[in-house]
Design goal:
GO molecular function, one term: RNA binding
Structural class: mainly alpha
InterPro entries: PPR_At4g14850-like_plant (IPR046960), PPR_rpt (IPR002885), TPR-like_helical_dom_sf (IPR011990)
Largest sheet: none
Shape: globular
Organism: Rhodamnia argentea
Number of helices: 26
Helix content: 55-70%
Protein name: Pentatricopeptide repeat-containing protein At3g26630, chloroplastic-like
Number of strands: 0
Order of helices and strands: HHHHHHHHHHHHHHHHHHHHHHHHHH
Pfam families: PPR, PPR_2
C-alpha cells in the first residue's frame, strides 16, 4: 500500500496549507507539513512526499506519522508505516505499543511486544508500563505477571510509574494480595501510588483498608479525596461522603467535576433536594461548566429527588448531551407519568441522529405503560428490533406484559407471569417470555397483528 502511495502524483503542490517546494524538502519541512495536515487524506499526501524525498527512514518523522495516524483512528496505516522500518528504535516500539493500547487494540499491543522481544530488541522502563496497560485492557493477569517478571530481570521493577501500573493491573484483576505486595515493596510512594492503592482496595470491597491508607497519606490531592468519596458512594454511605467533603474544604482542596458528580449521587441516596440544589449552586458559583457528566448527574439527582422541572431545565441548558443524558431525561419523564413528553423527547432524539440503546427503549416503553398505550408500545418494540437491531431485555417484556395484562384482565396465566417476573426481579429469560407472548398473540383474536410473533 505504501509503495503505491509513493508513486501517486504530488497532490500537495500549490495547495494551502500543504504548499512546499519540491526542492530541498528536509526533515524540518516534513515536520511542519505533518502538523498542518487537517485530515487523513492530507496525511497520506504528506507521507508520499516524505517517501519521494528519502525521509521514510527518519524515525522521528515516522513516530510523528504514527501519532498522526492514531489520532485519525487509522492504526492499520500506522502499522504499515511501522513495519517498513528496518530497525525500529526502542522509542518507536514503545510508541506503537502505546498507540495500539490507546486505540483499544490491546491484543495487538501485546503481540507487538512479543515480536519486539523475539527480535532481540531491548525494552526500556517505558516499555513495560505500556504493555501492562494493554494487559489491563484485556484483563490478562497471567501475561501481566510475565511482563512483571521480565521487568524485574531487566532491572526496572523499582520504577514508580511501572509499580503504579502493576498495582492497577492486580487490583482490577481481583488479585488484592499481589497489589498490596507491590505497594508495600515500593521504596517511594507518590500521591498517585497511594491513590491507586485506595482505588484498588475499594474495587476489591475493602473500604476500611482504603480509608486507613487514605488517612496515612501525608499529602492528599483532589484525586485522592474524590477516590475516597467515590468509595463511600459505591458502598451506600452518603453521610460519610459529606463528612469527607467538609474536611476536603477545610484542607482547601478544590473539588473537580467528578467530586461534584459523586456528591450529587450521595444527595440522591439521601433523597435531599435541598442539598442537591446547594451542590448545583456551588458548581455555578465556582465556574463549573454544565458538561455531560455534571449535567447528567444533576438531571438524575433532580429526578430522583422529585423535581422534574429542575431536571428538564438542566437538560435544556446543556449544550452537549450524550446518549446517557437523553436516557436520563426520557426515563425521568416516563417514571413521573409524563408519557407524552417522554415520547416527544424521544422523537427529538431520533431527529438529532442520536442512536438509542436498550436503556432508551426501557424508558419509552415505561412511558407507554403510564399512558396505557398498547399500540404505541408495540410499535416501539418492533422498531427497536427492526430499525436498531436491539435484542429485547426482560424489562422490555415486562412493559409489554403489563399492557397485555391490562387489556386482558381475565387472563390469569398472564397475571401469574407478571407477578412471577416482578418477584424474580425480571430474571425470567427473554426467550421464555417471547414464546409465551407469541402463543398468547396467536390466540388473542387480533389484538395485535400476527407479525408480532415474527417481530
Amino acid at each position: 500500500m505504501i509503495a503505491c502511495v509513493s508513486s501517486t502524483p504530488d497532490g500537495l503542490q500549490g495547495r494551502t496549507p500543504l504548499s512546499y517546494s519540491a526542492q530541498r524538502f528536509g526533515s524540518e519541512d516534513a515536520l511542519v507539513l505533518l502538523q498542518k495536515c487537517a485530515n487523513f487524506r492530507q496525511l497520506k499526501q504528506a507521507h508520499a512526499k516524505m517517501i519521494r524525498s528519502g525521509l521514510s527512514s527518519d524515525q522521528l518523522l515516522v513516530r510523528k506519522m504514527i501519532q498522526a495516524c492514531s489520532s485519525h483512528g487509522k492504526m492499520d496505516y500506522a502499522t504499515l508505516v511501522f513495519h517498513r522500518i528496518e530497525r525500529p528504535q526502542t522509542f518507536t516500539w514503545n510508541l506503537m505499543i502505546r498507540e495500539y493500547t490507546m486505540n483499544g487494540s490491546s491484543r495487538q499491543a501485546i503481540l507487538l511486544y512479543n515480536l519486539m522481544i523475539c527480535k532481540g530488541f531491548a525494552p526500556d522502563k517505558f516499555t513495560f508500563p505500556f504493555v501492562v496497560k494493554a494487559c489491563i485492557g484485556l484483563s490478562v493477569i497471567d501475561k501481566g505477571k510475565e511482563v512483571h517478571g521480565m521487568a524485574i530481570k531487566a532491572g526496572f521493577s523499582r520504577d514508580v510509574f511501572l509499580q503504579n501500573t502493576l498495582m492497577d493491573l492486580y487490583f482490577k484483576c481481583g488479585d488484592k494480595e499481589s497489589g498490596r505486595r507491590v505497594f508495600e515493596n515500593m521504596p517511594v510512594r507518590s500521591v498517585v501510588s497511594r491513590t491507586t492503592m485506595i482505588c484498588g482496595l475499594i474495587a476489591c470491597g475493602d473500604l476500611d483498608a482504603a480509608r486507613g491508607t487514605f488517612e496515612q497519606m501525608p499529602d492528599k490531592n483532589v484525586v485522592s479525596w474524590t477516590a475516597m468519596i467515590d468509595g463511600y458512594v459505591k458502598n451506600g454511605q452518603p453521610q460519610e461522603v459529606f463528612d469527607l467533603f467538609r474536611r476536603m474544604q477545610l484542607d482547601k482542596v478544590e473539588p473537580n467535576e467528578f467530586t461534584l458528580v459523586n456528591l450529587l449521587k450521595a444527595c440522591k441516596e439521601l433523597g435531599s433536594l435541598k442539598l442537591g440544589r446547594w451542590i448545583h449552586d456551588y458548581a455555578l458559583k465556582n465556574g463549573f461548566d454544565l458538561g455531560v457528566f455534571l449535567g447528567t448527574a444533576l438531571i438524575d439527582m433532580y429526578s430522583k429527588c422529585g423535581s422534574l422541572v429542575d431536571a428538564r431545565r438542566v437538560f435544556d441548558e446543556m449544550q452537549i448531551k450524550s446518549l446517557v443524558t437523553w436516557n436520563a431525561m426520557i426515563t425521568s419523564l416516563g417514571v413521573h407519568g409524563c408519557g407524552e413528553e417522554a415520547l416527544a423527547l424521544f422523537g427529538q432524539m431520533e431527529e438529532g441522529n442520536v442512536v438509542p440503546d436498550a436503556i432508551t427503549f426501557v424508558g419509552v416503553l415505561c412511558a407507554c405503560v403510564h399512558m396505557n398505550n398498547l399500540e404505541k408500545a408495540y410499535q416501539l418494540f418492533v422498531n427497536m428490533r427492526e430499525l436498531y437491531a436491539i435484542t429485547p431485555l426482560p424489562e422490555h417484556y415486562a412493559c409489554l406484559l403489563e399492557l397485555y395484562n391490562r387489556a386482558t384482565m381475565q387472563d390469569e396465566d398472564f397475571d401469574f407471569l407478571r407477578n412471577t417476573q416482578m418477584k424474580q426481579n425480571n430474571n425470567i429469560s427473554a426467550a421464555f417470555l417471547e414464546a409465551d407472548i407469541a402463543q398468547y398473540v396467536s390466540s388473542a383474536d387480533g389484538i395485535f397483528p400476527s407479525s408480532f410473533e415474527e417481530a
